[in-house]
Amino acid sequence: MGKVAVGAAVVTAAAVCAAAALVVRHRMRCSGKWARAMAIVKEFEEKCGTPTLKLRQVGDAMDVEMHAGLASEGGSKLKMLISYVDNLPTGDEEGLFYALDLGGTNFRVLRVHLGGKEKGVISQEFEEVSIPPHLMTGSSNGLFEFIASALAKFVASEPDGFLPPNGKQRELGFTFSFPVRQTSISSGTLIKWTKGFNIEDAVGEDVVGELTKSMEKIGLDMRVTALVNDTIGTLAGGRFYNQDVIAAVILGTGTNAAYVERSHAIPKWHGLHPKSGEMVINMEWGNFRSTHLPVTEFDQALDTESLNPGEQIFEKLISGMYLGDIVRRALLKLAEEADFFGDTAPPKLRVPFIIRTPDMSAMHHDTSPDLKVVGNKFRDVLEISNTSLKMRKVVVELCDIVANRGARLAAAGILGILKKIGRDTAKAGENSKSVIALDGGLFEHYTKFRTCLESTLKELLGDEAADTIVIEHSNDGSGIGAALLAASHSQYFEVES
């Protein structure tokens, strides 16, 4: 009996030892995987690093590329497009003006009543119209006749007493957010369609001419006074309310910047110099690139797999279209190389752009003790239900790394603009402010991105110069800004002044 008992005890002890060894091996394996995960995060953070010196180098490179782009066509990755906008709103504009904002599957028509210095914008009304899908790939006539008829319907609801006097035409600012080769303030040929549009017979045509033809066909007596993009509209909207606005930056799904340049500082400008001595330049800064940009393996892969490899490198680092997907790519590496989510990578993590920047922002701003928002996003978006608090903290850290890099690089880009126009240092005896109008969903809704951008700009400028620079949210520039530019470039303005 005793022998049997001893034998059983030996077997039990062996089983306990084996189980303990399994636990130890499991812990070692887990701690090994965790160490690998932490190493991946640390390496990613280092490669995304934006120390002050590097940001100054990015700002200097932006300044150099701006000079090159102004010197000659094709002289730089920055297009530095001449906008032909040489009169920004002064606040004195009066009258009723229209705007048409076409930039996607919807367009907006706006009516803005301006009352000059005393009254500013007295009223504004708008309507949003969906474009039927077949018109996005049909004919130029089909699209522009649809737009013209919606515009005519909107004009028909004009308040009594606003008929243009003495046979004057109504005037329209046209925000057209597709690549255009501008030929004057009120004309430009379409280079190519984007955003799901593909109307072959419109490419190479003057988009204002196409719209005008359609308006004339239905008897709508209206003239396009200004053809602009949304960044220039934002600049105009900002300037109407504040004469110290010198530049505008859009940080949304995409990104761009425009600023006011002295016409004499544009070597490629061969026309007569405008009376104002100024010209708004549309930088197309999303296409900026430099060896100083902190590009990681995830950015390179995203670029290679994109619709425009090798293009819009700056945009792919800082804009809302891409930030969430950079986080996804980092998470996928953790899943594949460190079994971060278990033995197999969750299938949804392989879906490009499944993590949108609004999802990333929600996770980044999660202040709950157990990071509940992060857990819910993973369950709802990625179908991953078993995330520990430790894992959720890593996810927030990845969001922080990607958002901070984007915000700090955007600040470096703004520094480059300020350097180009000599506004990056405080001038003795001068109290003037330089205001930068910012718009776009990323800037407006991603609070941590915005605060990081603002604090980085101060860090780069130093206290004294930072006191002279103001960042101001300028809402809806693409709409009201176009109406304001129609006013400041009115065909009747010269006659009356």
Automatic annotation (TrEMBL):
SUPFAM superfamilies in UniProt: Actin-like ATPase domain
Q: In which pathway does it act?
A: Carbohydrate degradation; glycolysis; D-glyceraldehyde 3-phosphate and glycerone phosphate from D-glucose: step 1/4; Carbohydrate metabolism; hexose metabolism
Compartment annotation: Mitochondrion outer membrane
EC identifiers of the protein: 2.7.1.-
What keywords were assigned to this record?
ATP-binding, Glycolysis, Kinase, Membrane, Mitochondrion, Mitochondrion outer membrane, Nucleotide-binding, Transferase
Which Gene3D superfamilies does this UniProt record tie to the protein?
Answer: 3.30.420.40, 3.40.367.20
Extract one GO molecular function annotation from the record. Answer: glucokinase activity
Q: What is its main location?
A: mitochondrion
Using the record's annotation, list all stretches that form the Hexokinase N-terminal domain: 41-238
Membrane topology, as annotated, equals: Single-pass membrane protein
Please verify whether the record's keywords include Plastid. Answer: no
Name the reaction it catalyses. Answer: a D-hexose + ATP = a D-hexose 6-phosphate + ADP + H(+); D-fructose + ATP = D-fructose 6-phosphate + ADP + H(+)
Pfam families, alphabetically? Answer: Hexokinase_1, Hexokinase_2
- Tell me yes or no: is Transferase among this UniProt entry's keywords: yes
InterPro entries, per the entry: ATPase_NBD, Hexokinase, Hexokinase_BS, Hexokinase_C, Hexokinase_N
What is stated as this protein's family in its record? Belongs to the hexokinase family.
Q: What is this protein called?
A: Phosphotransferase
